[in-house]
TrEMBL record:
It comes from Pygocentrus nattereri (Red-bellied piranha). This is Peroxisomal multifunctional enzyme type 2. Pfam families: adh_short_C2 (PF13561), MaoC_dehydratas (PF01575), MFE-2_hydrat-2_N (PF22622), SCP2 (PF02036). GO terms for biological process: fatty acid metabolic process. The gene is HSD17B4. Residues 347-475 form the Peroxisomal multifunctional enzyme type 2-like N-terminal domain. Pathway: Lipid metabolism; fatty acid beta-oxidation. It is found in: Peroxisome. GO terms for molecular function: 3-hydroxyacyl-CoA dehydratase activity; isomerase activity; oxidoreductase activity.
Amino acid sequence: MVLYRTVVCRRTLEEPSPLRLHLTSLGREYALAFGERGASVIVNDLGGDIKGGGKSSAAADKVVEEIKAKGGKAVANYDSVEDGEKLIQTALDTFGRIDVSPSSYLFLYRILRDRSFARTSDLDWDLIHRVHLRGSFLVTRAAWNHMKNQKFGRIIMTSSAAGIYGNFGQANYSAAKLGLLGLANTLAIEGKKYNIHCNTIAPTAGSRLTQTVMPPDLLDSLKAEYVAPLVLWLCHEECKENGSLFEVGAGWIGKLRWERTLGKIVRHKNQNMSPEDVRDKWDQICDFTDATKPANIQESLQSLVEVLSKVDDGEGILANPTSAMASTGSGINPTEAVGKVLPQMTFTYTHMHCILYALGVGMSTKDPDQLKFLYEGHDDFSCLPTFGVIPAQSSMLEGGLSSVPGLSFDPTRLLHGEQYLELYKPLPTSGTLTSKASIADILDKGSGAVILLDVHTYSNQELVCYNQFSVFIVGAGGFGGKRSSDKAVSTVPAPNRAPDAVVEDETSRDQAALYRLSGDWNPLHINPSFAAMGGFKAPILHGLCSFGFAARHVLKQYAGNDVSRFKSIKVRFVKPVLPGQRLQTEMWKEGNRIHLLCKVKETGAVVLSGAYIDLHAAPGASAGGLQSDLVFAEIGRRIKDLGAELVKKVNGIFGWEITKGGKINNKRSFIPVTIDLKTGNGALHKGPYTGKADVTFIVADEDFMEVVMGKLNPQKAFFAGKLKVRGNIMMSQKLEMILKDYAKL
């Protein structure tokens, strides 16, 4: 990475007291590292001892000379941090711009005036705050508008473990350093739309300030060069990190975040709240079980809004936000609810609904390949496969769930967690569909309840598609239920390698307004005021809209927009998308399964995870002409019926290399078949498989059938050279569960 521009590496404060500091070892290391990477560096240092005495330009000049000696560009500056405008002006006059403003420590200098709190004087307090907090404010303010105008800037605030955790004798220093974190968090919010990112580091590194209190071997392990790489990465234009806090030292880097207990409501409506109320609930107030991790002020305040609603409803002290009763009134009762069937739903639609849905998930006439989904007169007019969620979604959206006995909850607490859709035939472009929904299972996740809603959709009594909605009811957990279910269609992590294909697509500012016309009328996606109540700065895109975007990316990339090849899709919804942001879908092909990960291009935030799409084999791509096709087809049906159970029992991947012509070394007729009973609900793949099988059997098609018919003993085939085994041969003992009655390999 060489994409650095103008960087200020700097030090301290001058008036009104004679406070002078030397560039610290960290500041020097940053300056040299930025210089080596091609940045133009302003080295600011007044020079002085650790208490602020003395003055010298030698330190800054020496660093400038070192940078220039290595072919870099640098200039010294000796102004005080209270003259931040002069420091920044030096950068502008010399290099024409300011890109990286590493405050407090990248403008690097530092002083300590350690005293126990009782002995801390006004001067001790003021000097530390003027250097570390006010100094960072002044220099950052001087650079801010220049960064805004050029739509780019990177700011690093340097806090300290003393600021994060406190430390004896450093009340002044701790307060200033934690103040920097608050400043950085606000700058990250205000600067985000201008591409100005602000992060905070809390480094541990040896320096002149610590050489008198640390042994030499420890100082050697805490070199400043072990901190600089983090700073350079956070300042790089490719780094999207913003508003984060990192501890770093000795070659280790860790990210910190806030954690908060679920808490406890300790007052009744229209009643005074007493210290005794607090005392009696203290253990629950301090219980970090199922703790939340608020990332912004909206998430923090959202909990208080929920508290107010509970108090207004008269729940008061008796209300426990971690229990089902707190959020549902009569609570969650799996025994009563599981297996219950919802009222049957009918959905009548025309070609107009198919076209409107296609537009809602980003299709455009700008791409000629998409016209078949947008023009009813097209010779191959088709309905997008993911339209299959539309006739089924009303069971979740129209209050049907909360009407089921044993499922009393506040619908506003419902979140869409995961989605599975499987098609049994291409969707018709018009007609009337009938959907039958039932409660497949209910899980207790502690902080909430997960409801698995199965919906089967029929056309003229023929099954067309199956949906499984996995919905999370916030605050409805704690009823003592199970945490997992074999009825849930599982997500599958993407392979640990570079994606095979990446597709980017831009959502329009009106994407949510357009998608909602397909039936999801939630005002969260259109009304700014309603979105703000939910903690969002603007209306967000529907999760199923992102789902549709990603699915059509895969359909085009790997199926040529042939809807007959679409079999199923599974996704987990992670974070929302703002209309107008770009979606990036990363894809990995493993046989007929396409793993996918969908992100927001601008922020890198993951939108869909654990996702995959299963495709039917392309016409002509099957292992045609093999007698063993029938056997594997039957095995495939067995996996479809018992997949989850088999995965749990077997936990293995089996490969076959089936050859023609009676010889197992006939590579020209080599046909791979893979049975995956390790991931998801299991799958049978024909054709190349990019994963790794636990055990692979190499056998001629004719000999395979001899074994199946019981005419050839597998052991004799092995010793006769007609059957070869590669990998973990002991895994073959588990094959009986999937091959009995069909094959004996």
